[in-house]
Write a structure and sequence with these properties.
Length: about 200
């Protein structure tokens, strides 16, 4: 199955696929209680992380763009404030509003603390992986992980990700990840933390 490195030209299709995949994700109702506004917030969130991944050279998608993975490869796994600003961080905070922005900032600190605990050295971080709902179950996640795993194995670094959805844990363990922790985040949100070691 063909998997392409993505650029800014792929943003509309990639963001549409990611937003569809994350429409029911547990993170977003607390960030945006207004159901009518929530799709805009989800799209802004996905757009921000996609742009960050493109800048890091870590965005990939299937040929039809129904599966998208956003990664921050080793050396870019801790982006600075300027990188976030250039990727549209202020626009995302504006979409979230004061309450949602404060909550996301607090959650990001908690995500980062868990990541530093589990992978204190160089690693590849996967902040976002999405498959369009109608295409799930067809092995597309494994496909888009292909170039990510190849690069991580070449560089001898682990791959780290987290999920708030327990069924995803089984999917990721089948792909070679190990469950290394579970946290309860602000607001009682669950967070499963997984690492794939280089092979």
């Amino acid at each position: 199955m063909r998997v392409d490195p993505l650029t800014h030209r792929d943003e509309p299709a990639a963001v549409a696929a990611l937003a569809a995949a994350f429409a029911g994700y547990p993170l977003f109702p607390p960030l945006c209680p207004d159901a009518a506004r929530r799709p805009h917030v989800i799209a802004a969130f996905c757009r921000f992380l996609f742009r960050m991944a493109v800048r890091a050279g870590g965005a990939y998608g299937t040929a039809d763009r129904s599966a998208i993975i956003c990664t921050w490869p080793a050396g870019t796994e801790w982006p600075g404030t300027w990188s976030q600003f250039r990727a549209g961080g202020l626009s995302l905070l504006w979409q979230l509003g004061w309450r949602g922005g404060r909550l996301l900032t607090r959650l990001e600190h908690e995500f980062d603390a868990a990541r530093r605990k589990h992978v204190p050295g160089p690693h590849c971080y996967v902040p976002l992986l999405g498959v369009r709902p109608e295409m799930q179950g067809g092995g597309l996640s494994r496909a888009v992980f292909g170039p990510v795993f190849a690069a991580a194995d070449r560089d001898r670094v682990p791959v780290y990700l987290e999920t708030m959805t327990e069924p995803n844990v089984a999917i990721y363990t089948r792909l070679g990840f190990e469950l290394v922790g579970k946290s309860e985040l602000t607001g009682g949100l669950p967070n499963w933390e997984l690492v794939r070691r280089p092979s």
